Every structure is written in structure tokens, then in C-alpha cells.
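Q: For a teaching session next week I want to show students how multiple molecules come together into a single three-dimensional assembly. I've collected the sequence lines for a complex. Could you give me the predicted C-alpha cells for the whole thing so I can convert them for display?
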Amino acid sequence: MRSFFSSLLSRFSAHCDYLDIRHQYIETLTIACRDGRPRVRTHLERGVAARALYKGGWGFARCSDPAYTASCVDAAIRQARLLQGAPCRLAPVPVLDVEHLLAAESDPRQAPLAEKVSLLQRYADMAGRYAGSGVGSALHYHERVVLSLFMDTAGSFVYQEIPDISGALCAHARRGANRQSASVSFGSAASWEVVYGHDREWLDAVRLARSLVDAPVAGKGSLPVILAADAAAVLLFQVVSALLHRCRAGASLGDAVPDVPGARELHIYDSALEPSTRGFEPYDAEGVGNRPLTLLKDGRWRNCLHTRESAARSAVPPAGHARAFSYKHRPRPCLHALRVTPGNATLPDILAGVTQGMYAFNPRYAACDGRTYTLSASGYRVHRGRLERLVRDLRLHGSVSALLQHIDGIADAPEIVETPLWRAGGAPGGMAQSSTSPAMRISRAEAGGK
Amino acid sequence: MKRFSEVAAERKARQWDLFQLNRTVRAVTIVNNTLQELTDQQEEGIAVRVVKKERLGFSSASAFDDKYTCLDNALAAAEYGEKTRLQMPAASMDRGNGVYEGRMAVSLEEMVEQGSALAARLTQAGKGYLVSVRIGTSEEETRVYNSAGLHSALRCGRFHCQAGCQLADRPLVGRHLGLWSTGPDRLSEERLDNLLTDIGILEKAVPAAKGVYQVLFTPNAVMDLLFVLCQGLAGTPIAEGTSPLTGRLSEPVFSPHISIQSNPGKKAGSFAAPFDDEGSPGRTVDLIRQGVFEDYLLDLHSAGELQRGGNGHGRRVRCLKGVRSHAAPPRPLPVHLDLAPGTEPYRDLTAGMHTGVVIDHVHGWLLGAMPAGEFSGTIHGGMVIRRGRPQGRTDGLQLRGNVYTLLQDHVIALSRERHTAFSLGVHGRIPYMLCRDVVLY
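A: Of course. Below is the structure for the complete assembly, covering every listed component.
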């Protein structure tokens, strides 16, 4: 394959200023288990994407049959020539010749399907004990192994094999129109065995779903809110993604960093170099090596995510954030694994300062458009520093700038959880990303019940 | 297929079907007044579905050569698959290799020219709007083979043209419109003028407090609501008992203003076809007639579960993208919805609003608990109406609700005019919908 693509690159390099080819082979396995009834799907995919740059114009074409690679490259060059004249150049990056191979113990394909199915069924059986009380289960396991080859006319060759394992165990309970759910989610780029060991959390989730049906609806008002680690991770991921996206939408303005200040204590960064977490990807879709990138520190945004093109425009070195879900997609700046640095307060410390407030956990979904945010979660009323009554359908909303500035307490390390982004409204098996955050307090947020 | 059929029989697949998709997409995308992307994609794929020991297995691949691997994977999946009573349509149901429409004969260069002209038309309004245009064609060839001897083939060409304007200082505030047709077509001058009029009104911000309003949903917004509703009108959740409409057939469930028909053969719908993605002939279905729940959407599996004949609504559509995909198993989904119009012109509906908001899009509303019919999100560019006159825009109000409650208790009237609208793979001819007592937070 390397020599075939190499000869194509040589053949076409004279027709454009820059050309790259990505070939991918992707194997996907999805197991969904609803109330103990499993449903298994597999998908094999291979394809080639070609990207050409000619006098500032980009061309992108793809095909699902590698035999058509030459015509695909030709189409990309034709497009680039049609679009020539656009102001575009690429930030310089080192030429790489690297391979990142998947260790056998990290390859989820080595584990038998029967073992994966029976594990999910076991979780379903655990929930089944509560079936009489109206609790059901919806369990998902998703694995995706991507073998990706990148080559360009500058001479880079990058081959990497990346697994992505994700899933969620979701318990749902219902009384008429009142539907409640609680879930345990997991993700890894290292081993499918991340699915094991959730018995206690899962039973807690099942009990929680059942309790939520009987819980009162959260009240409305403007009050202090403590975001549990899971809620904070999900919400901050949405907020940071939306702010960075808004930045990119104003690309013609020079890819400035977001103009929304944050709390001084808040330190947010992104990294793709932690092999065990979702989002691990040592090299991006433009063949650039990843390095951790500080996004927000000391109340100010420090960096934006870049492709080689936007990095050149902003005169910064690219940090390996040009990602593409598959060969079908163009590389775009995208987060890998968002991290919030822990603070120095314990959760009881954070709670202690609250006379009347709300504790948000078990997020159902979060959304952010760059200016406002919404978070739907479960909650506890907080009274004089103590968690009191469980409430359902807690919805927080407000402006992003108020949210980031009103964070006045961040918990220390033990509260950190790894949260794959299922609960942020993302589809299972989407782009491999994760978010980790400690619990935090917002001095004032708008809460509204159903 | 003879060899494939023999191998499937050897491996004890009692029933099977093989779906094959070939697609070529060409498109021109103009974003923020700049020609940004040209798209040229060739895609193919197959999906194999088997029934073994009355259990269903599914697998897909991007290459036709992988069909035997796919068959093996589908058989392995069937070991754990759900029980099914589906019956593959027999050869006698084959509508015969139908060629729906001719090939799209628009070159990339012509699309660039058309797209640039349309963008210039909107940019020349001179207000510094961010103009986006997407013009494209797609050609799809689908084939379905099955163990009952069916071989259906369908080739269709589609043309789409979408245009939108956003405020330069408020990129989330804007208006979009589009057309999808089976041949090169243009957006009418009247619709473009209306778009520019609306965006002109939205330039002015008007404070609007939280409270109870009359709300006029535009066809785009109504289509999003109907997409949420379709999740409950599908045979699968009805058979599973998870739809709010389970057990309510022939009951009045909505306002008498509401009549919804699914019409898979409607030519205006770009997915329109004489048969669905399982090879079953598409039938026109009255889902809701004057508020009464009349029928539901069925694919072969849900038809088997409900022990009924299918009605040709098995579609292989990728959930959040709305495009046909070989990797998606069939599920009941409409192709083209007709929401019956009312009697009053749209302008009369707005003129009759004392204090209200016109909603075109709610950011993030498909993230709600869709099976329960819930929607929730933030309104950008809601047009405030006072004493029948548009005043300007409101930003940041939240809309939350339930589509079943909304269509049952809140609908006042539907407009006489209908427009083509699109939501995640479902098209429709949709009127404006005026609702009372809608709470905006």
C-alpha cells in the first residue's frame, strides 16, 4: 500500500502544491442490550481520502474502493484548481516516518463476542431484579478499531492503529409521562475490559432511576449550584467545544481565542497522549504529532485548536488537533481528551459554603451554542452545606460567560471521573473523545424544573 | 446472487436479504460569502441481514467483495439477535427494477456558477449578512436481493439547493430555506425575498420576558416537531409498548386540525421511491386524520411483531444525519409527510397574534427524550410579534415541551400555505402552525 500511494503522490505532485492521501480500514462492533435482549451489529469499512492544495484552493475527494484512488486524487486536484486564489497556506511541520501499532492485549477484536454479550447480559440480569418495580435497562457497548495510513507530498508517512471502546449502562424507570434514567458510562483506548467492574455503580444507578420517579421536580430560581464531577465534565466539554467552534466560525477574523473570560482557578487543557483514555491519538489526520495544549488558564483563553491551515493563519505551531471521524471527513480542529486541573478544596469544603443550593449529578444531556448553555440532570437540594432531598428534572441554563466566571470552587483530585460524552447528547460510537473534571461550585446559576 | 444464496442456505440462514448502495455526491458549499468546499464523493456499501433460528442478525461493509464476511458476521450476530417474525417480501412483490428519474447532468463548474449567483443575490441585499449556500446533486443506486427471490433495483438522482443568511454579529441568528427535487431547480424569488424580509426584521433586538406566548412555528420548526413525533408513530416502539401512542389506535389523540399522511411515492420527496429499503412496496398511510390516530409506520420487523402486513416504510437512514446508509439497519421512518393545511393565510395568522413569537429553529431541541416526545432548547432569532406586527428578535429564551401535549391542546390554526421542509432525512409539505399558551423560559 505504501509503495502504491507513494507512486501516486509522485505522479500527481507536479499538478498541485500539496497533496495528501489517507487510507483507513475500520472495524466496528456494537452491542445494544435492551431489557436483556441483545442486538449485535458489525461493520467493516475501508476507503481513501485525497486532499490537494493548489494556489490556496483546497480539494477533497474520497472513495470507498481503493482501486479508484487515482481518480479520487484527480478529482481533488480538479476541485483545488477550481478554488484557487483563496488565501491559504500550511504551517510547517516536521516530516514523520512513524508507525504506532496496536498491542495484542489492547486489541478488543481478540476477545470473543460471546464474552462481551454475556457480560452485558449479566448487567441486564442485575437490573432485572428490579423489573417488577418498573425499571428497565438499555446497555450499549461499542468498539471501533481504526487502521489508518497517512502520506503526503512532503514525504510524511504515518501509520497508526487506534482502538476506541465506549459504552454505557443506562437504567430507566417510568411512571406515565414521568421518565427517569441513570447511567454508568465508560471508555478506553486501551482495553475492552473497561466494561468489567461496574457492578456497584450499576446497582446504584438502577436504584437511583427508581428513586427519581418518586422524587419531586427541582425548583426554579437563581441559586448556587455544585456540579458533580460527571455533570461538570459533560457540561464543560460542551461549553469548551462550542466556544472553540465559535472561534473557528470567525476564522476570517484571525482565529482569535474565545473572548469569554473564565474563573482564575479554572485550568483547562486538552491532550491526546494518554493511552488509556478515549481520544488517544498520537498523530492527527494531517500527520502532525499531538502535544498537550493549554486552553484556559488564570482566567484567560490561551490557545485555540488548529489545523495546519488555521495555524499558519494565526502564526502558531499546530498541536495535532486536525481530526476526522473517518476517511469520509475532512480534518477539522477537534478536542481529544479535555482535562480540568483539580483545585485544592474537598467536596465537603465546597458544599460547606452553600446555605441553599442545588447539587447536580447524573447528567442526561448538555447543550451549548457558544453563548448559552443547558444542562439536564438529577439533583439534590443543598441545605446548610448538606445534601438533602433528591430531585428530578433539574435544568440549568444561562449564559456561558456567567457560568465560567461564577465558578468559585474546584474540588481536588479524588473527585475526578472519566466521562465519555454519551451524556452530552453525543451518539454512541461517535468521535473518540473524553472529558475529565473534578466537582465544582458555581456561585449562581439559573435552575428551572420541568 | 445464486452463489450467495447457496452459501447462505449451507450456513442455515432461513431468510436473508442483501442491500447494496452506490452513491455519488457532488456539491458546492459557500460559507460566510466565500466559496469554501467542493465535494466529490463516491461511496458504496452492502448490508446483510439474516434470520436464523428465528433470530435476526445484521452486518454491513463498505465493499461488495466482503459479502461473505458480512454474511458470517450477520450469522454470528443472529446467535444473540432479537426474535423476529419478519417475512421477506416475495418475488411477486417486486415492482420491477424501477428507474425513478434521470441522471443529474449538472457539472461541478455549473454548480459553482449557480451557487455564486445565488450568494451574490443574497449578499447584494447590502446588509453585510453572512450568506451560506449549498448546491449539490446525488445519484444513488440501491439494490435489494432476498431469500424469497426478490431483486429490486432503484436509481434516483436528487438535486438540492439550500440558502441561508445570518447576522454578522449574531451568527446564530438567521433564516434558512431549501428545496430538494428530482431535477435542477431554483429557489423562487418570492421565497428569497421573504427570507431577506425576515432577516431584516431580526436585526433589531427586542427584549422579551419569560412567560406564556402565542407561538407561530414555521414549517422548518414544525418539521422538527414532526420528526420527534415520528419516533412514536413507528411500529417498533408501538410493538415494544414504549410509544405514548401504544394502544391508542382509532382514538382522538391530537387537535382536529392535525391530519398527517406519509406518502412514500411523492415525487417532491428526494427519498421517494416505489419501494422501500427492504424491497416492500411503499403505501400511502394516513397516520393522523383530523386528530385521530389511524395507522403507524411499519418496516418488515415491526410488521411481524404486530402481526400485520408491512406498509413500505423500512428505511436505512443514519440517525443524526438523515442520509441513506447501508450501515444502518432498516427502521420504520416516513419518506415524505404531508401535514394538511389550514384555511387562513400565514400573514393573517401573524396579524391575529397580540403578543407572540415566531419560532424557526430551536438550538439543540432534538436532544430531549425523543421517545417520550420531549423537546427542549434555546431559541435564537425568535421573531417577536406585538399587535400583529413583527418587532424584532429575541434571543436566549428556552422552549421546552412535549410534542404530544402541544399537538393535542395548544394548536389554534394551520396556515393555508405550505412549504417543503426537511428534518434528518424526512421531508414534508408543511404549513405554519399557530399554538396558544406556550411557555417560554
